[in-house]
Amino acid sequence: MNATQETYNKLSALPDTAVLSNVPLSLYTRFGIGGPADILVDTPDPARFIDAWRIAHASGLDTVVIGGGTNLVVSDHGFRGVVLKLSNNAIRSDGVHVHVESGVSLQALVDSTVDAGLKGLETMTGIPGSTGAAIYGNAGAYGHSIMERVSRVTFFDGVWTREFTNAQCEFHYRESVFKRHKEWIIFSAGLTMDPGDPAELRLTADRILATRNRKYPPAMKCAGSIFKNFLLADLPPGVVSQIPANVIIEGKVPSAWFLEQAGAKGMCSGGIRVADYHANLIYNEGQGTARELVEIISELKHRVESRWGIPLEEEVQYVGFPSPNGTVTI
Fold first, then answer.
1. pLDDT in tens, 67-123
2. What is the rounded CA–CA span in Å between residue 40 and residue 30?
3. Are 198 and 119 within 8 A, CB to CB?
4. φ and ψ of 98, to 5 deg
5. For the chain, what is the mean pLDDT?
6. In CATH, what class is 3-88?
7. Are 305 and 312 in contact (CB under 8 A)?
8. pLDDT of 211-234, one tens digit each?
9. Is 80 exceeded by the pLDDT of residue 329?
10. Which residues are catalytic?
């Protein structure tokens, strides 16, 4: 019996755990792209997740953890190894304090807090993905980010289940300590909200959602914006001098502005296309491949760096692509 089959058998013996073989990862990504995983494990129970994690790592097979798949680019060849997914999805509130599990969609969390008259997340309506991913990448919109509401985060570090305070999470613009420690898996978080009027919060959320849906239609196979925006303070003076004042928003410069100057709008490679109306929106027209997506991303990065000397940084994560040291990029 080979290692893959032996590992599959051990994982299949876990209670409350779905174990699949050769499942297309395109079914688990918003891009709708990606080849099969040798083994995919999905459980709503953190304890079972830890059991599965330990079995997978003891097997010697490559292992990766995924969330909602919104920001994933999966190789056309898939993933040779074990893909783990934690799908816990409970939300509890006590006054202004909210406990949310990492598998809850960010939209469900926004709706729950808005309906309960809890202010602080309404500007994040329409942002796709799970709450765990939102904390991992410090998601935000309209001048606010989830770090403003996080009081604690519970996570698994590969040995123990631990809890961090907001300060220990080391949040920055679209960054957290969890991005630098990809082996740490977020299980849940505590949020502290402000009281608000549910009707007013709903009006704000609905207005933002309508705007977002015009830019990023819910049925579009995309990850939202591909590249991070730039902090104005981090850009070289020579670059700053070329940026029109009306482009700068709350101390940030949209990557879309640089991309538009580089002729990104309307670019295509096979079934992958850059939107005609938004230079930082890349989507799958229906039959696109990961190879085509990576080609466009690489070309856009090359154009911007060649012209301005600044590196674009992706918000997406890669699964199944070899990295220079021979390990698997996640």
1. 989 999 999 999 999 999 999 999 999 999 999 999 999 999 999 999 999 999 999
2. 17
3. no
4. -125, 135
5. 94
6. alpha beta
7. yes
8. 999 988 989 999 988 999 999 999
9. no
10. 174, 225, 315
* Positions of E strands within 95-234: 97-101, 118-119, 140-141, 144-145, 150-156, 161-165, 185-192, 194-195, 221-225, 230-231
Chain centroid to CA 217: 17
Quickly tell me which residue has 């006054």 as its tokens.
Answer: 95
Answer CATH for 91-200 from 3.30.300.330, 1.10.10.60, 3.30.465.10, 3.40.50.300: 3.30.465.10
User: CATH 3.30.43.10 in the chain, residues?
Assistant: 3-88
CATH class label, 227-314: alpha beta
Q: Tokens standing for 158?
A: 């590969």
> What distance in Å separates the CA atoms of residue 44 and residue 90, rounded to the nearest whole number?
10
Q: What's residue 326's pLDDT?
A: 35
Residues of the chain with CATH 3.30.465.10: 91-200
